[in-house]
């Protein structure tokens, strides 16, 4: 009896320790955010900045892990398959959570089904830019040149969104445009700066230093209205294509099944960081219009984006594989 009492006491003690461990307040260990793009691209830069701010508020380190490939599908799948405990997140984009479902024949996750929305981080337009030695000073001039000699105006496309910009512009203008896909901004800019291609479509973040140095020149921005992220640059809409708009975005997601209280904690930390004036100013400098908001708002926004772009992609016959 004495042995059984001791044994029972040990079991109960162990169970109590296990229960206490299971009930540790979130977060009780480091968090990782998977970025499905190469280090140094706009999404990566913004994620690292936001992660540092959120880590201070949450009291745990947040590690950013880059897993590029397959237009963002590779890294996004990692989070879709992760344990729904709030310790693996992803910085989703308009590509991974809206466009890719229509561009790829097979995709290893379903954006609306396999993720819990946390919040919209920021939005940004794309910029059409040319090598400083290229003769183009406006979008109409570039398009006219392409009509006469299509291969003289090849366009570097380092992202899914860049491809959409080119394809939509080709559809709206009726002019032949040739886009050359790249895995990331670094390789694309190397070729544009080296003169192998005259034109690139990329984010304000990726182009910022090259525009400042004068090595490339912006000739159009893809927001419907003039953007603070591209001061003085005319929109595509202003240059002959009313209603033209392609906006990219970043948003935090967790795996499906992540507890609501965990999502709430992460959303609060994100919104707190985005509400700081210095954060908003810094994100603008990095090339992002800060957003924020509730998880439900992100779910509605992403759904609207899929509804908007799905038919465009299908009608244009676009495929990424």
Task: Give a short overview.
By secondary structure, this protein is an alpha/beta fold. It is built from 12 helices and 11 strands. Strands 2-1-3-10-4-11 form a 6-stranded mixed β-sheet, with helices on both faces. Strands 7-6-8-5-9 form a 5-stranded mixed β-sheet, sandwiched between helices.
Describe this structure in words.
The chain has 321 residues and is an alpha/beta fold. Helices cover 47% and strands 18% of the residues. The protein contains 12 helices and 11 strands. It has a 6-stranded mixed sheet with strand order 2-1-3-10-4-11, sandwiched between helices. The protein has a 5-stranded mixed sheet with strand order 7-6-8-5-9, sandwiched between helices. Helix 2 (42-58) links the parallel strand 1 (31-35) and strand 2. Helix 2 packs across helix 10 (260-275) and helix 4 (94-103) runs parallel beside helix 12 (295-316). The longest helix has 22 residues, at 295-316. The termini are far apart. 43% of the residues are buried. The model is unreliable at 10-21 (pLDDT under 50).
